[in-house]
């Protein structure tokens, strides 16, 4: 129904690479993100390999998770790596002061993290402790992980791992403007320079250094870090959460919301485009060649915690609304792939906009998981620009283009197009002119459901899941698709 959407897919003018690291996941010591979600240790009642749940690891392998960021978040700037190595029973039990004041057994430490990476097939992105750690402690952690020789390498071998691990990415602290130390940007820039100085990678390897970046629209932070420390960095982070409802703590429920909240949430997610545009423009002043990448290493929806759950555990259900937030955001990253070369949705398991939820032995995949599955071909593919002219969807004070999209050409030459209809009421007919592409058929998958807040539960784990989509045709170089209301469609063009 309504006005049709017209678009042009520019296969004739390919853009930058859509970096696989944009699909990085985040695992913080927070709630049941690690303990219970990924790690069950010696609990024989839940099938596991070396302590990590087989069901969760298998789901993450399927997703082709390229990188896992760990151990925080706010947890990172109070984390002391030496407390998480050596015999499990001898590790100190601490209090997780950021997240619920619960005990932190230190059962998952450096060796366990690298075991998780091995099982999932992902690379390391560690956030080091600047807040209440020392430059020496961070440097020694990197040496312990990466060095082929020396006392720290010997200690690593005694703890069970002779070979060094690869550490391609290191965060120099997390949210230094807040939980990482409440620093002014000038001070954070100096600390970033000082800590970074002592990060030494063994011959022939590199550890990319990512500075703690701005909170949402804090452009002064980005300007100051780039001006004072940009020359020392490989990446600069940005954190932006979609928090409907206004005010803190988040109060909008994850399910059982109305259309006002649907529209507010998607409008909030769209703000990412403006944030990246403006942070990137600030970075251009100091780094016009875009050598320093923007790492949007925390993003996603943040609602009220699920009823009955611990407020400090940030556990929330995940609905079709989150699926549309995910596709909207992944499309925005396509438009900024020249600068955004890493992002991490928060957080992988049981926390905020999660891929999977667990409860005891049970696990469900979320609608967001399914969107990430559908976008797997985007990993390291070439962005093909797509211009979309679409009617606006409006609800109360929130307005937005109804249709979002992005397209890529993968290494094998296949073209993939994603189109999302954010209008929860109207179907949308899209015609896409294929410039420089001789495809003749289109097929793929659709993710949709009857209700805006449709979601998967342990009782009904497949309420929202992708279905085959065959309602797309190509005639005379034009792709025709009718998008159902509130849907994400991903097509392979042949
Ligand atoms: O993801 C939850 C928290 O949000 C992280 O610990 C912190 O970095 C951010 O404020």
From TrEMBL:
Q: In what residue span(s) does the Alpha-L-arabinofuranosidase C-terminal domain sit?
A: 297-487
Q: Which Pfam families match?
A: Alpha-L-AF_C (PF06964), ASD1_dom (PF22848)
The alphabetical list of record keywords is: Carbohydrate metabolism, Glycosidase, Hydrolase, Signal
Please give the catalytic activity noted in the UniProt record: Hydrolysis of terminal non-reducing alpha-L-arabinofuranoside residues in alpha-L-arabinosides
Which SUPFAM superfamilies does the record match to this protein? (Trans)glycosidases, Glycosyl hydrolase domain
Is Signal one of the keywords?
yes
Is Nucleotide-binding among the key words of this record? no
* EC number per UniProt: 3.2.1.55
**Where does the chain cross the membrane?**
none
Q: Oligomeric state and partners?
A: Homohexamer; trimer of dimers.
What family does the database annotate?
Belongs to the glycosyl hydrolase 51 family.
The protein's name is non-reducing end alpha-L-arabinofuranosidase
**Species this chain originates from:** Novosphingobium pokkalii
């Amino acid at each position: 129904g309504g006005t049709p959407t017209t678009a042009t897919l520019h296969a004739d003018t390919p853009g930058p690479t859509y970096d696989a690291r944009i699909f990085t996941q985040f695992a913080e010591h927070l709630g049941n993100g690690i303990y219970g979600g990924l790690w069950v240790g010696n609990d024989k009642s839940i099938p596991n390999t070396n302590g990590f749940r087989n069901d969760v690891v298998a789901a993450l392998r399927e997703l082709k998770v390229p990188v896992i960021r760990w151990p925080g978040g706010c947890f990172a700037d109070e984390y002391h790596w030496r407390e998480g190595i050596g015999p499990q029973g001898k590790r100190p039990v601490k209090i997780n002061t950021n997240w619920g004041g619960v005990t932190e057994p230190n059962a998952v430490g450096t060796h366990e993290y690298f075991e998780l990476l091995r099982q999932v097939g992902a690379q390391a992105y560690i956030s080091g402790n600047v807040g209440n750690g020392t430059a020496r402690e961070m440097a020694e952690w990197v040496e312990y992980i990466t060095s082929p020789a020396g006392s720290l390498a010997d200690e690593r071998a005694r703890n069970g791992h002779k070979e060094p691990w690869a550490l391609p990415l290191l965060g120099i602290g997390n949210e230094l403007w807040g939980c990482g130390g409440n620093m002014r940007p000038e001070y954070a820039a100096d600390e970033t320079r000082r800590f970074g100085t002592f990060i030494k990678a063994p011959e022939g390897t590199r550890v990319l250094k990512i500075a703690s970046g701005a909170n949402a629209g804090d452009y002064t932070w980005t300007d100051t870090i780039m001006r004072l420390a940009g020359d020392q960095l490989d990446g600069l982070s940005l954190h932006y959460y979609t928090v409907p409802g206004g005010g803190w703590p988040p109060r909008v429920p994850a399910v059982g919301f109305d259309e006002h909240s649907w529209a507010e949430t998607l409008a909030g997610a769209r703000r990412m485009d403006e944030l990246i545009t403006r942070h990137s423009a600030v970075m251009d002043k100091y780094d016009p060649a875009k050598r320093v990448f923007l790492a949007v290493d925390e993003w996603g929806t943040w609602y009220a915690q699920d009823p009955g759950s611990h407020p400090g555990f940030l556990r929330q259900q995940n609905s079709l609304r989150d699926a549309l937030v995910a596709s909207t955001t992944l499309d925005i990253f396509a438009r900024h792939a020249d600068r955004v070369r890493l992002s991490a949705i928060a957080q992988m398991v049981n926390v905020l906009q999660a891929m999977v939820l667990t409860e005891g032995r049970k696990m469900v995949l979320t609608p967001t998981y399914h969107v990430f599955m559908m976008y797997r071909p985007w990993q390291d593919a070439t962005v093909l620009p797509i211009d979309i002219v679409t009617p606006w969807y409006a609800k109360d004070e929130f307005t937005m283009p109804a249709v979002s999209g992005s397209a890529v050409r993968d290494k094998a030459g296949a073209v993939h197009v994603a189109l999302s209809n954010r209008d929860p009421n109207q179907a949308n007919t899209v015609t896409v002119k294929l410039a420089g592409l001789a495809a003749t058929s289109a097929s793929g998958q659709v993710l949709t459901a009857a209700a805006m807040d449709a979601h998967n539960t342990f009782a009904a784990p497949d309420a929202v899941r992708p279905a085959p989509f065959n309602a797309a045709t190509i005639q005379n170089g034009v792709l025709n698709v009718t998008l159902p209301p509130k849907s994400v469609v991903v097509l392979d063009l042949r």
